[in-house]
Amino acid sequence: MTDTSLFQQITDYANRADPYPLYTELRKSPVHRDETGVYVVGGYHDILSLLHDPRISSDARNRAEQPGGSALPGEEDEGDGVLPPTFLRLDPPEHDRLRAITNRPFGPPHSPRRIDGMRGELRTIVTDLIDHLDGGDGTLDVVEQFSYPFPVTVICRLLGIPRADESRFHSWADTLVSTLDPRPDVDTAERVRIAQQARLELGMYLNALLDERRKKPGDDMLSHLVAGNAPEGRMSGMEVLATAALLLIAGHETTVNLITNGMLTLLRHPEILERLREDPRLAVPLVEELLRFEPPVQMLPNRSPIADIELHGVTVPKGSPLCLVVASGNRDPARFEDPDRFDPDRRDVQHLGLGSGVHSCFGAPLARLEAQLALAELARRLEAPRLLEDPPPYRQNAVLRGPRHLRIAVDGVRP
C-alpha cells in the first residue's frame, strides 16, 4: 500500500464509517506525504508536539499554493470575502488578542460561572426536545430531532439571540454546515454561492442585532463583545461579526457530532448504556473517553510550518500543507493501552479530541456539559433504544466526522 493510496482511502467516503484500520496503517510511518504535497501525521506524541510548536501556523497566508489544491474534501473555507478570518485561522499575536477578548464573557478566569450557570437552562432544553421525540411509530432520528437542534438552541441563548429569531439561526446554521460537506451532485461554484449568501444574510442580521446591543446591552455574549472593555482592546465591527458567526457554526457542528457519535457508541455497547441509565454521574468520564474513542473532529488540515521542520528524518518544507490526524493519535497504542476498546473507566484519557496548544477547543467546557447532559438524559428516558441501521449514513465530511442520520427504534419515552 503506497502513502498516496492510503491517504486517499482515509479521505474516501467509502471508509467514513470505520477509518480506524486505515489509521493503524498511517501510524506505521511517522510522516506520510501525499502526491498533492500534503504531509500527514498520525502518531499521538508527534501530533501533540506539533500542536505546541510555534513554527506551525494556522494562517492560510503562510501556506504555499499547491498544484492540485487541497487534498482534503470538506475543509471549511472562510476566505470568501464576506467575513474576515476568525481566530481559528490566525496565529499569535492576532489570534491571542481575539481569543482573549472572546473568552472574557465565555468562561474562566473572567467568567467562571458562565457555562455552569446555564446548566438549568440546558436541562430544560434537553427535556423539551426529548418530550417531543416519540412520533407515535416507535422510530426517531436522533440527529434531526435532538442532537442537531439542541446545540443551535444553546448557542442562540448564549449569544443572546431573541427566541423569536432562533428558527432563522437554525436555517442559517443548516445551510452553512451543509456547504462544508463535499457534494458531487452540486456544482462547486453553486455551493460557494449558497454559502456566501447564507453568510451575508447572517452577517446582516448580526450587524443589526449588534447595533441594538450597543444601545441597550444585556448580559449575553454579543453585548460583551460590542462593549469593548477588555484590556486586550476592542474588536472591529467585522471582527465581532466573524466571531459571532464562528461561535454559531463551530460551536454547533462539533457538538452535534459529539452527541450523535456518543449515542451510536452507547447503542453498540448496551452494557455501558445501562450503566449510564442507572448512574448519570458516569456521563463525565464517559464523554472524555468518547472524545478519545470517536472524536467529532478527526483531523486538523489547516496547518503549515513557517520554517522547514524535520520529523523522524523527514523534512516538512516551509509552507507545506500539514494534516494532523488527531483521531489516529487517540488510538495510538504507543500512548493508550488497548486503544480500540471503549472504556469509560479508563484512568488515563489525555486525548486530542479537543485539540491542544493555543488552538485548543474554545468551546470545550460547553461542549462537554452539553454532551454529558444529553447522553445521560437520553439513556434515562429512552425505552429499549436500538439501532435500525448500522453503520448509519455518515456525513461526507472527512474532517468533521459523524452520522448524517441516526435512526433508532424505541419502545417509548419515559417521563
UniProtKB/TrEMBL annotation:
Annotated signal peptide: none
Keyword line: Heme, Iron, Metal-binding, Monooxygenase, Oxidoreductase
InterPro entries named in the record: Cyt_P450, Cyt_P450_B, Cyt_P450_sf
Region (Disordered): 60-85
Molecular-function GO term, any one: monooxygenase activity
Keyword Heme: yes
A Pfam family the protein falls into: p450
PANTHER family found in the cross-reference section: CYTOCHROME P450 YJIB-RELATED, P450, PUTATIVE (EUROFUNG)-RELATED
Family: Belongs to the cytochrome P450 family.
Protein name: Cytochrome P450
UniProt organism field: Kitasatospora camelliae
Lineage: Bacteria, Bacillati, Actinomycetota, Actinomycetes, Kitasatosporales
